[in-house]
Amino acid sequence: MVNGTIPKSYLFLQSALTEENPFITTEQVLDWLQERNKKVKVNIQRVKFSDLDQWKFDEGVTVLRHITGKFFSIEGINVLTNFGNKQEWDQPIINQPEIGYLGIITKEFNGILYFLMQAKIEPGNVNNVQLSPTLQATKSNYTQVHKGKKPTYLEYFVDRSIAQVLLDQLQSEQGARFVRKRNRNIIVKVTEEIDVQDNFVWLTLGQLKRLIRYDNTVNMDTRTVISGIHFGDSNEPIGGRESFSSSMLLSALDSKRGMYSFDDIISWFTQLKLQYDLTVKTIPLSSLRDWVITDNEIRHVNNKYFKVIAANVEISSREVSRWCQPLIQSAQEGLIAFVVKKINGVFHFLVQAKLECGNFDVLEFAPTVQCLTGNYRETVTGGLPFLEYVLSAKKQHIRYDSLQSEEGGRFYREQNRNVIIEAAEDFPVEVPENYIWMTLNQLFYFIKFNNYLNIQSRSLLSAVEFI
């Protein structure tokens, strides 16, 4: 306690160590989400691009955009790089220069911090309703370009006089699908009573982390916000029986036993940024090599990677109940995995520096394995580091394994297998030059800054439990 004030890191940690909730149990949350699903009307229909209301290709089919010029657009890019095996390609990409809000309201009840979560439907969600942040809105949404209602609870994130900011970060979106897209990840704390509306609920951080173990239950926006929480520094031993979760807590708190220092990691990353080049040039959609534009989709000639589709959306619980938009549909399920290993008595995560065409600053920290495009089951023999190790991991070494959705506002029913694997004792400490071992404490420290950890790594780290 500092000057009579409990540190926010302690409040976050206490909440992460608490699953008991007098308002609603974790099992009841699952039932509540099913009830929300039954009460809302959802109708998503694929249509032709020509039937997209208020969305048009410009003359020459250079870009697909909303007639207001707001929301986002689908554009073409040419990519040149010296990173990886493929060093030039064309592709469609989402250009959404607006910075949106991903915000969670918190409040203390009996000394425990609770998070106000929303049961929200996005048009691309695999299973319709998922647990979302209190506020999830693009600038076009909260400035009401759509002429719909203003998002609920927006005032708590805009008016600094009514809420205390606990976390405030700009974080990147999917670098292979967006051009330099970022959102404001923000957590605020209130002391006043809040009118909790019908599709909102108070949950502890421990409950949220437990619910991430279920397939497609906690949406990506929630996962990226809570991944930014730092739990403080402590080099005291963790009491009680040693378990994987208590070892994860030690890795989250220990600031002394990292294999590499903060300066070592910065130097490694800086050297790689100088080593690799990335040039992205905007080109007309109609000029994309190896891509075909039809009446109802933009797809790769070999049906690989992803396609752009057109959708007519009807959702009864949204600020606007009907609209049209393009969506990105993945060719297949992907794989996101961290390999972890005890080094110096503390679990370290095997992190890769990964280049993606939409990255803000060339490289970002990514999971050990990240396969979002192409069929990863056919690339095991292609030399992708650690892929075969992850796919052949023994059951006793798999510490976390679930299917998690991508962001349903732009991606159509896309889900990826998320895995954390504890390495066997004979797993090498020596790794390729664009990989490095980092403790959880170090990863949480880097999340504080913009454009270090990519969204896939943040999403997977949010699943780490301490109880």
Show the helix and strand layout.
Blueprint: H1 8-16, H2 26-39, E1 42-47, E2 55-57, E3 64-66, E4 73-81, E5 88-95, E6 100-109, E7 112-121, E8 129-132, E9 135-137, H3 139-142, H4 155-158, E10 164-172, E11 182-190, E12 200-204, H5 205-211, H6 220-227, H7 244-253, H8 262-275, E13 278-283, E14 291-293, E15 297-300, E16 306-315, E17 322-330, E18 334-343, E19 346-355, E20 363-366, E21 369-371, H9 387-391, E22 398-405, E23 415-422, E24 435-439, H10 440-447, H11 455-461
Parallel strand pairs: 6-11, 18-23
Antiparallel strand pairs: 1-16, 2-3, 3-4, 4-5, 4-13, 6-7, 6-9, 7-8, 7-12, 10-11, 14-15, 15-16, 16-17, 18-19, 18-21, 19-20, 19-24, 22-23
Helix pairs in contact: 1-5, 6-11, 7-10
